[in-house]
Amino acid sequence: MTNNDLYTKLPQDVTFQILQKLPTHSLLQLRNWSSSVFVNGVVHWLAYKRPEFNGPPNCIMGFDVVDEVFKLMELPQNLGPNCNELRLSPSVDEKSVALFVSNRENVGDTWNVWLMNDYGKVESWTRKCTVVLDQVFFPLKLVSDAEILAAISDEKLVLFDVEKVEIKDLEVSGLPLSFYASGYIPSLALLDVGEKLVE
Where does the F-box associated beta-propeller type domain start and stop, copy by copy (predicted)? Predict the structure, then answer.
């Protein structure tokens, strides 16, 4: 089930029940709701632990769609002093979460890519790589251990190779102002056989 499947299949009353269960000490970052990540039966999004809304979010909130309970996940400890933007992504195998962290430097933006190697364990956060480019760079999704799907300043959708430090233009023109990248896992499962997920 992808994020889009989840949003389109949840009835409005169920969505309202989820929001009613939301702890009052956290705040959904609604302007960035489209960057939520569905991993291990849990919808994850960036949030605030306390009502301190200056700066980037300070935790990852999750809602387990099976048990209907909220989960709180800590961010990596050493994000750096100039952290100004965070973006979530599923890991390459879609079994854990990854985090893109923008740090403003004197020369421009630097993006650090963090991966939670052991899902749910804060001590397993590892910085995988750092991306420094001389143009605006918006990471969207980890595609492989060495590639990041991203949008760059001249409205191009690109694959950034972390190891070779190369940008490959995917030749997609006319990017909308807002969009979302979602992955898939190939499967040989037959869609018309077996138990139905949604009646």
Answer: 34-161
The boundaries of the domain holding residue 49 are 3-133
Confidence of residue 102 (pLDDT cuts 50, 70, 90): confident
Residue 172 located in a structural domain: no
The answer to the question of residue 138 being in a domain is: no
d(C-alpha 90, C-alpha 76), whole Å:
16
Task: Give the number of other Cβ atoms within 10 Å of residue 119's Cβ.
Answer: 14
Residue 80 resides in a domain:
yes
Strands, E assignment, 40-108: 42-48, 59-64, 69-74, 83-90, 97-104
Look at the chain and report how many structural domains it folds into: 1
Give the chain's length: 199
Q: Which pTM value belongs to this model? A: 0.73
**pLDDT value of position 115:** 94
Beta bridge partners of 42: 39, 64
